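Checklist before submission:
- one chain only
- standard amino acids only
- sequence pasted in full

Submission:
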Amino acid sequence: MTRPDRDSIVSLLSQLVGIDSVNPSLVPGGAGEEEVARFVASWLESAGIASIVDEVAPGRFNAVGRLPGTGGGKSLMLNAHTDTVGLGAMAAPLDLRLEGDKAYGRGAYDMKGSLAAVMLAAKELAAGSPLAGDMVIAAVADEEYASLGTQALLKTDVTDGAIVTEPTSLNICVAHKGFAWIQIETEGRAAHGSRPDLGVDAIGMMGEVLTELNKLSLRLSERPAHSLLGHASLHASLIQGGQELSSYPARCLLQVERRTLPGESAEDVTVEIARVLGAVERREPTFRAAASTFYWRDAFEAGARSRLVEEMQESARTLLGVEPDVVGETPWMDSAFTQTAGVSTVVFGPGGSGAHSDEEWVSVRDIAACAEVLVDVARRYCQ
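Returned file contents:
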């Protein structure tokens, strides 16, 4: 494949960035993904790729293109999300601005640059000799919040392999952390502030919980580190409690985030938190508390001898002229869903900076290189 030229990349990226696709679950009133999904599907159709727009939840849309293979080869998904975070304080967030190799705009880096690479790669594959295996081109909704798009897609399209094209600076990502969101509520007894004999301070009790959580955090940092991801971690995120200054607080609510490593389960985290509460209960006879995990996302780790990872390494080595770094990333991605569904997964995308910030850019050269590598990997893997 000849790398896509700069003008083609800039033109496509400008159109993608120019479509407001702010996730409405993050920003009430956000535009959502319908317009960008319809644009992607139409563009793929014009490139000869049969495509659909799928409403995966009310007002939330995927665009899915499919290239049937001739038979006998492995199937592959190229996955990129279309939603963005809010527009923030960017001066002209939907107008692509170029400064040398850097293309600025909301979503340029996270991840419409990757989406452009996927679309250009798909166009090249559609124009060439048919692959043996089927290809799925997935522009999915809602990765920034609940991953409605990829979860819906996996009900109909479970391929042999998937390349999730989150930006990695052309490194090969084979692992990332997961997370749990946990709610802890301590129960006190409301009473007049002058009656300590009647009141039980729920906020004070939560202080005891925080002390034990700090101890747990230290223990996590002392465990053996994952070779690519480092240590698991925990922090207190949000706290609220009490009713007025002159009363003992009847309740206090704490929300905690626990970042997890591959191999850790929701049950593991539940047991940890139960031990934290048990430690307080043993020394505080009036202590009453309850905990629950209200959100869980698995960590991701590619198979130790994944053929897809090996093909990605070979393609990147050949086309980029350097030995690609194999890395782990700390943020959560849709790759956890594909891998958990039994789809061999790797993460690979262009470089840039500024995800979720007011200064976001992607490398145009990296988009070109990413598209070239995706085509080569598909031809290797789907044979």
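Reviewer check: The chain has nine helices and 19 strands.
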